[in-house]
Design brief:
The complex is a heterodimer of chains A (about 475) and B (about 475).
Chain A (H helix, E strand, L loop, with lengths): L7 E11 L38 H13 L3 E2 L5 E4 L9 E4 L6 E2 L2 E3 L5 E11 L3 E5 L10 E5 L6 E7 L6 H18 L11 E10 L9 E6 L2 H20 L7 E6 L4 E7 L9 E2 L10 H9 L5 H9 L7 H12 L3 H9 L4 H14 L9 H12 L5 H14 L3 H7 L7 H14 L1 H8 L4 H14 L5 H11 L1
Parallel strand pairs in A: 12-13
Antiparallel strand pairs in A: 1-10, 1-11, 2-5, 3-4, 3-15, 5-7, 6-7, 7-10, 8-9, 11-12, 13-14
Helix pairs in contact in A: 1-4, 2-3, 5-6, 6-8, 7-8, 7-9, 9-10, 12-14, 12-15, 13-14, 14-15
Chain B lengths: L3 H10 L4 H19 L2 E4 L1 H16 L11 E5 L26 H8 L3 E6 L33 H8 L5 E5 L6 H7 L2 E4 L20 E5 L2 H11 L29 E5 L8 H16 L3 E5 L7 H16 L17 H12 L2 H14 L5 H24 L2 E5 L15 H6 L5 H6 L2 E9 L5 E8 L4 H14 L4
Parallel strand pairs in B: 2-3, 2-4, 7-8, 7-9
Antiparallel strand pairs in B: 1-3, 4-6, 5-6, 5-10, 9-11, 10-11
Helix pairs in contact in B: 2-3, 7-15, 9-11, 9-12
Classes of the chains: A alpha+beta (about 475), B alpha/beta (about 475).
């Protein structure tokens, strides 16, 4: 979307990610999504009187991994209390980091070549989760509210970008790239639909080279689509207000997914005074050099590097193939693709099968071996399997494992011998002289016609490429 | 009444039994608790079961532990599984913790028998136990006077011979001041020596659990039992419990003891006289005496009344009616929070929450809380300099002996001033002990305070023991 006139949007994002630790940030309760409500709780994460927090060092490992991946400076840091009342926050304060975060500075390079600066990436604890029943369904005006404290005390890292983003598409690309990094470092499962990654967007508008406008913060955007829509809506809203002679109030806004609009949650005057002060129940966090080195050295390759490596294996990639590469990187399927390519498969075909069939069966990936994937792709490429058949075989492999050749045989996918295919093609040419003539005169579309006819006759057992080869041999 | 040391020895040897000692304790409580309002809850069944278990283990020839069969009173701001824990506040009335404070586990592991929970100033905020939602505790030595506070119930329990030992907590003097007013030994250990896990927080950076007893040796035994690293408390010192009882009779020969001018300034004459006699007694025992002025001590009270309320305003936010304790319904969540807190907290707690909230507010933080932190740093440095010139410091614990009910309740500043000599130790995170030495007005006991650097508990007990012997106590 382009903004009207010469307006430019200025966006900074705060991305909260839950860390994939076994236990919570300050107690030994399981960090697990989807358990029965209030089963993963103890005096500490319920904020019972007298309980005290003890820092989970694995959360620190993951926070540092994120910091290294974002080129941040890792320094001695402290914890602060952020004080405000909310029923799903058991202590009525959140343990967070304030003026001395574990990671400061850094940057993230996006696939389009742009760079977004990182201000900080700090540790904090998550709150519980409220469900408001009856009435308005929101905290004000519901008939009753239920609170599940399973999420209370789950470790989070909040990654704050600089105000460097200039379009909603760039915002989306930033979050997508960041999500890739979070998954690659093992810090997060990146599941936005489960709330593992949540975004607040600071949006303002300005004329080129003017000073930044007054910003509004849109809270709790839980998908890339919402993020993009909300930012676009908010920028246009601000432009309308300004062009009508009004001015923007600094405020926090709520995004309504159904109506597609943002609305005021609270104004700056109503903003909470969080009364930050040092958390006296925790000591300073000062990871020594050995600890930092251990994390840095165990850091895997980041998506940008992996994307570059994989793309380099495809000659002149088409946009569709680049999208396929993106999916492969996102889901970490390179091992399959690389194995297939190394075994002689066409890179584009290997990427397509991974980005489509493997992506669709990602939850069953443990059933598939690198060898069986490579073999299936090569069978398709050699014409031993049609693409429909190859997809079916992959589906079978994902569902229950096994050997691709054995599955093909069991399914009756024996390759039509070239003799038999040649006979079929010859018969069809005789039966369709007009189409054959047009094909011979160079109308390539007619190849599809013949493939369709062959498929009909062979009940889908023929390979499209083999049919074309037969046609060309007779042209 | 027998000392804890005597009880433990007799129970372990079979001379006495934990059950018999407990019954003595329970009858003493039965005889005077109504009059003095010391225990808010007596866990007769639990204590009898614990005593029986000690006796059974003794019968089997087991070594039960250094506190075998010793009845102990617990200040009602420490969590004990299934036992009502109120902090003397209506807001926690009826709440029963599902877990033990680390100190409770350690006491039980040493064979001690917790008998019940003692009264305190609400959330440990006060110096007279008059701020309890369940009525004031009376000083057993003179029931027209306060026992001090906030650990007034624990001090009174020992002074009334109900238990030989009690646990208190000291945020600005809340063990030492009631010890002084009730004629007991009371120690505020170094910050981090005793786990705070399960101690309901007032001001987290200042709170510390410690012992109250009639004798120095008993206090040392109790502290040794509960001290040492606890992985559940991040601010807990890394070392195991120090050896204390073994050093009680080490004396003070060759030690340098500094009389600090600011620790007697404004104290009653008879209090000052006791301090001077204590100094002389230490000198007689071989200590070198110097005099020091530490002007930073005068800033302690102001800094304390910003830092402690600031932390309290945050620590006490969780009493919101959502999950436990009192709930007073309201139109919506915020109204329910407000109605609950309005009904549940007493005046002094509200005053400190307001003070602390203000001190941390945007625009005031630097002038108040920030400034107080700077004073705290100066206090730490001042102590460091003092400990280059002396091993221990000495002064009064309180400016006066036990005062009458109501004499300071209308003037918070007057009440706050009763902690003026004890606060510097909490701000610096160091250790101090109050030991009874001489008497003042109406023959009431005077407490002399010995202060030492972090982890100097063994030296402090040894010096206190010198004073105890000088007073002719066994």
């Amino acid at each position: 979307m382009t903004l009207p006139g010469d307006w430019e949007m200025v966006v900074g994002l705060e991305v909260h990610t839950e860390l994939k630790t076994a236990t919570k940030m300050f107690c030994g309760c399981a960090n697990h999504f989807g358990s029965e409500p209030n089963t993963n709780t103890c005096p500490v994460c319920l904020g019972l009187p007298g309980s005290l927090p003890v820092l989970n060092v694995h959360a620190v490992d993951l926070a540092m991994a994120i910091g290294f991946a974002l080129h941040s400076t890792i320094a001695s840091s402290t914890f602060h209390r952020k004080n405000y009342f909310y029923p799903d926050m058991p202590k009525d304060f959140q343990i967070s980091q304030y003026d001395l975060p574990i990671n400061s500075g850094g940057y993230l390079d996006l696939p389009d070549g742009s760079r977004v600066s990182i201000e900080r990436a700090h540790l904090e604890e998550d709150t519980g989760k409220s469900t408001h029943l009856g009435g308005t369904g929101r905290i004000h005006g519901a008939d009753r509210s239920l609170v599940d404290y399973n999420r209370s005390g789950v470790p989070l890292v909040e990654i704050v970008s600089g105000p460097d983003i200039r379009s909603s598409a760039q915002a989306r690309a930033y979050v997508a790239e960041l999500r890739g990094i979070l998954i690659a470092t093992g810090a997060s499962d990146g599941r936005m639909e489960e709330g593992s990654v949540r975004i607040d967007a600071n949006v303002s508008v300005r004329k080129p080279d003017a000073v930044f406008g007054t910003r509004c913060e849109i809270k709790n955007l839980n998908s890339l689509r919402s993020l993009q829509r909300a930012i676009d809506y908010e920028a246009l809203r601000q432009i309308d207000v300004i062009e009508d002679g009004g001015s923007i109030r600094q405020e926090t806004r709520h995004w309504d997914e159904i109506l597609g609009v943002t609305s005021t949650m609270r104004t700056k005057e109503e903003a909470e005074d969080y009364r930050y002060f040092r958390e006296p129940d925790l000591v300073d966090l000062d990871p020594d050099q050995a600890w930092q080195d251990r994390i840095r050295e165990s850091l895997p390759a980041m998506p940008a590097e992996r994307r570059q490596k994989l793309t380099a294996r495809v000659l002149d990639p088409t946009p569709a193939q680049l999208d396929g590469v993106e999916v492969v990187i996102d889901l970490g399927l390179e091992a399959f693709v690389n194995a297939a390519i190394d075994a002689g498969a066409d890179p584009a075909l290997a990427i397509a099968r991974a980005a489509n069939e493997l992506a669709a069966g990602i939850d069953d990936l443990h059933n598939l071996t690198l060898e069986s994937f490579s073999a299936t792709v090569r069978m398709e490429q050699s014409g031993e399997l049609s693409s429909t058949q190859a997809k079916t075989v992959l589906g079978e492999l994902l569902a229950s494992g096994g050997d691709p050749k054995a599955i093909a045989t069991a399914k009756g996918y024996e390759q039509l011998s070239s003799d038999s295919l040649g006979t079929t093609v010859a018969t069809l040419i005789e039966e369709n002289p007009d189409e054959w003539a047009r094909y011979r005169e160079g109308d390539e579309k007619l190849a599809q016609f013949f493939i369709g006819q062959v498929m009909k006759v062979t009940k889908g057992r023929a390979n499209g490429k083999a049919v074309i080869a037969e046609l060309q041999a007779r042209r | 009444m027998k000392t804890a040391q005597g009880i433990a020895r007799d129970v372990q040897s079979g001379e006495s039994s934990a059950t018999a000692e407990l019954e003595n304790s329970l009858s003493a409580i039965g005889a005077r608790n109504e009059e003095l309002n010391i225990f808010l809850y007596v866990d007769e069944a639990g204590a009898r079961a614990a005593a029986l278990s000690v006796d059974e283990r003794v019968a089997k020839g087991e070594n039960v532990g250094p506190l075998a069969g010793v009845p102990i009173a617990i200040k009602d701001n420490m969590c004990q599984t299934g036992i009502p824990t109120t902090c003397s506040s209506k807001i926690l009335e009826g709440w029963r913790p599902p877990y033990n404070a680390t100190v409770i586990d350690r006491l039980m592991a040493c064979g001690a028998v917790p008998v019940g929970k003692t009264n305190l100033d609400e959330f440990a905020m006060g110096s007279s136990t008059e701020n309890s939602a369940f009525g004031p505790t009376r000083n057993p030595l003179d029931p027209s006077r306060v026992p001090g506070g906030s650990s007034g119930g624990s001090a009174a329990a020992v002074a009334a011979n109900m238990t030989p030992l009690a646990l208190g907590s000291d945020t600005g003097g809340s063990i030492r001041q009631p010890a002084a007013l009730c004629g007991l030994v009371g120690m505020k250990p170094s910050y981090g020596l005793v786990s705070r896990y399960g101690l309901i927080a007032f001001a987290s950076s200042l709170d510390q659990i410690g012992p109250l007893s009639k004798t120095v040796t008993d206090a040392a035994m109790l502290l040794e039992a509960i001290a040492g690293h606890d992985p559940m408390d991040s601010t807990s010192l890394p070392e195991p419990s120090p050896s204390l009882v073994a050093h009680v009779n080490d004396g003070v020969a060759g030690k340098r003891v500094a009389l600090v001018r600011e620790l007697v300034e404004g104290a009653d004459d008879d209090v000052v006289a006791s301090v001077n006699r204590a100094v002389a007694a230490l000198k007689d025992a071989g200590a070198t005496i110097v005099e020091l002025s530490i002007p930073e001590f005068r800033l302690g009270l102001s800094a304390y009344y910003l830092i402690a309320p600031a932390e309290a305003s945050s620590n006490l936010a969780r009493y919101d009616g959502v999950r436990f304790g009192l709930r007073v319904n309201g139109e919506d969540v915020a109204a329910m929070n407000e109605a609950t807190r309005t009904a549940g907290f007493g005046a002094e707690v509200k005053r400190r929450i307001m003070l602390g909230t203000y001190a941390l507010s945007a625009g005031y933080f630097d002038a108040y809380y920030g400034q107080a932190l700077k004073v705290r740093t100066q206090m730490i440095d001042a102590f460091k300099r003092a400990y280059q010139q002396a091993d221990l410091l000495i002064g009064a614990t309180t400016p006066s002996v036990a005062f009458a009910f109501g004499s300071k309740t209308s003037d918070p500043m007057a009440m706050y001033l009763s902690d003026v000599f004890t606060i510097p130790t909490n701000l610096a995170g160091e250790a101090a002990i109050s030991v009874p030495f001489g008497t003042g007005e109406a023959g009431l006991p005077v407490g002399v305070q010995l202060l030492g650097p972090g982890r100097s508990e063994a030296q402090l007990f040894a010096a206190a023991r010198v004073l105890e012997l000088a007073e002719g106590r066994p």
